[in-house]
Design brief:
By secondary structure, the chain is mostly helical. Helices cover 98% and strands 0% of the residues. It starts with a helix and ends with a helix. The relative contact order is 0.03.
Length: 101
């Protein structure tokens, strides 16, 4: 009878321990799920931030290319004006040389 009581008490303790384990495991799984969810949110936030930065970089590169094209066009205009001025100067020098003769 003592052995039966001892086994019965031991069984009660084992049952209590076993019933706690699933609750602990469930809590561990919930905690892990929450951590993964938080990590996923961070990843998604970083991904969105990367997309925004990528768009901004594209816009900046487009603006830079546009500015460079405008500068190149203006440089060509100034070069053409300079060449025209040199040509007029040569013509005037040639006309002045003819007049001196």
């Amino acid at each position: 009878e003592e052995q039966v009581k001892a086994l019965s008490v031991e069984n009660v303790h084992l049952l209590a321990e076993l019933s706690e384990r699933p609750a602990e495991q469930l809590e561990d799984l919930r905690r892990e799920r929450d951590e993964l969810r938080a990590a996923l949110e961070l990843h998604d936030g970083a991904q969105r931030q990367l997309e925004v930065l990528s768009l901004r970089l594209g816009e900046a590169l487009t603006a830079r290319d546009s500015t460079e094209r405008e500068e190149q066009r203006r440089l060509q205009e100034v070069t053409a004006e300079l060449e025209a001025a040199r040509s007029r100067l040569r013509q005037q020098e040639a006309a002045a040389a003819k007049l001196e003769r």
